């Protein structure tokens, strides 16, 4: 069971995501139905630690064995999505894989394991042209700042 709780017009979500960098490119993904991007990963399951969750998600989405490295950021994020207030805890880790994914010439690509998702390798300096959420993660990637940190982000009033 995913650690996500729905209460009327509010949702709590706990997820883990990975920073995969290859020759100055970072891997991002989005749902085919959305325009905004995020880093690969997904919801943590009840009783599962964040690193194990990220390994599982990368295997499910990309069919790759991941080595989840050091903790980068914890982001406590409050925002509105689909007319619901979201309280999300995101834990971000540096990730290495033993098999490298091809860069696909900078084009979007899909994989059989995650047909609902679109992936793309983006040069770090070009992230400014993408709506990558949360923005604090995008800014950290663009600045090259990969030190462990905690961030509180809110676009809601009175949080």
Tell me the series of helices and strands, N- to C-terminal: EEEEEHEEEHE
What is the level 1 CATH name? Answer: Alpha Beta
So, the CATH homologous superfamily? Nucleoside Triphosphate Pyrophosphohydrolase
The coarse silhouette is globular
Strand content: 35-45%
When the domains are counted, the total is 1
Average pLDDT number: 93
Domain Nudix hydrolase: 11-147
Keywords: Hydrolase
InterPro entries: NUDIX_hydrolase-like_dom_sf, NUDIX_hydrolase_dom
Protein name: 8-oxo-dGTP pyrophosphatase MutT (NUDIX family)
Report on the structure:
The chain has 159 residues and is mainly beta. It has a single domain (4-154), classed as Nucleoside Triphosphate Pyrophosphohydrolase. The chain has helices spanning 50-62, 135-143; strands at residues 4-7, 10-19, 21-22, 25-31, 41-43, 66-81, 84-97, 117-123, 149-154.
Write the layout of secondary structure elements.
Layout: E1 4-7, E2 10-19, E3 21-22, E4 25-31, E5 41-43, H1 50-62, E6 66-81, E7 84-97, E8 117-123, H2 135-143, E9 149-154
Parallel strand pairs: 2-7, 6-9
Antiparallel strand pairs: 1-2, 2-5, 3-4, 4-8, 6-7
What's this model, at a glance?
The protein is mainly beta and 159 residues long. The protein contains two helices and nine strands; from the N terminus they run E-E-E-E-E-H-E-E-E-H-E.
Descriptive labels:
159 residues; mainly beta; Nucleoside Triphosphate Pyrophosphohydrolase; 6-stranded mixed sheet; globular; 8-oxo-dGTP pyrophosphatase MutT (NUDIX family); NUDIX_hydrolase-like_dom_sf; NUDIX_hydrolase_dom; hydrolase
């Amino acid at each position: 069971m995913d650690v996500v709780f729905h209460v009327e017009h509010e949702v709590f979500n706990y997820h883990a995501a990975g920073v995969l960098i290859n020759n100055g490119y970072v891997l991002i993904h989005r749902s085919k139905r959305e325009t905004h991007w995020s880093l690969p990963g997904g919801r943590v399951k009840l009783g599962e630690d964040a690193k194990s969750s990220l390994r599982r998600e990368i295997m499910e989405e990309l069919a790759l064995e991941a080595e989840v490295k050091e903790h980068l950021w914890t982001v406590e994020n409050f925002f509105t999505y689909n007319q619901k207030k979201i309280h999300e805890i995101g834990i971000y880790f540096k990730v290495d894989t033993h098999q490298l994914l091809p860069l696909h010439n900078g084009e979007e690509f899909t994989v059989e394991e995650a047909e609902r998702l679109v992936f793309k390798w983006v040069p770090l300096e070009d992230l400014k042209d993408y709506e990558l959420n949360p923005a604090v993660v995008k800014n950290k990637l663009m600045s090259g700042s990969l030190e462990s940190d905690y961030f509180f982000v809110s676009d809601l009033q009175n949080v």
